[in-house]
Amino acid sequence: MTKRVGLYPGTFDPLTMGHVDIIERAVKLVDELVIGVAINRDKGPLFNLDERVAMVEREMRLITSETGVAITVKPFEGLLVNFAESVGAGIVVRGLRAVSDFEYEFQMVGMNQALNDDIETVFLMADARYQSIASRLVKEIARLGGDVASFVPDNVAKLLAKKFSEPVI
Questions:
Q1: What are the residue ranges spanned by the domains of the chain?
Q2: Among 3, 4, 43, 158, the one annotated catalytic
Q3: Is the dihedral of CA 22, 51, 40, 45 positive or negative?
Q4: Which residues have C-beta within 8 Å of that of residue 130, sequence separation ≥ 6?
Q5: Are 37 and 87 in contact (CB under 8 A)?
Q6: Smallest Cα–Cα separation from 135: which of 3, 2, 37?
Q7: 58 is annotated as an active-site residue
Q8: pLDDT for res 104
């Protein structure tokens, strides 16, 4: 039997409880999960690439120890299907929060299938508790001094507080 490798891509700026929920459910579907941390210069991330990779790696250690599923975190840039091919992933995992997410993802699946129809995309609906969580909103709440503890893992909340307490140069 062939090993099922899944890929969950995103910018993870920052990693949220919604992301963690999707990851915890994705590991039930695959033998190995690669978390692809996207280098997306257009988004202008709050956390640099190394910070985002470290943030995700820290949280994945707990999930790996609880599930036994190998989870690797790798940065990537360029076409998603090319990255999926390079890590041997036959499944791309995407999380959906709302109908608006589906419209965008539907277009992406069509384009990705045109590029490589051997890679399947699996959509997981966000748990109702996490459907309103968006990294963009979490950053805004943290920037304005709000409590983000219920939206992100504890360590991420600390990193956000530190990031917004640092003087702007």
A1: 5-129
A2: 43
A3: positive
A4: 16, 17, 18, 21, 97
A5: no
A6: 37
A7: no
A8: 85
Phi, psi of 127 (to 5 degrees): -55, 145
When the pLDDT of each residue in the chain is averaged and rounded to a whole number, the result is 92
Query: Does residue 43 carry a catalytic annotation?
Result: yes
**Could you report the per-residue pLDDT of 141-160, keeping only the tens digit for each?**
999 999 999 999 999 999 99
Residues 6+ positions from 151 with CB-CB distance below 8 Å: 16, 17, 133, 138, 141
Of 25, 58, 97, 163, the catalytic one is: 97
Do the beta carbons of residue 144 and residue 157 sit within 8 Å?
A: no
Annotation says 135 is catalytic: yes
Is 19 among the catalytic positions?
Answer: yes
What is the third-level CATH fold of 5-129? Rossmann fold (3.40.50)
19, 52, 94, 139: which one is catalytic?
19
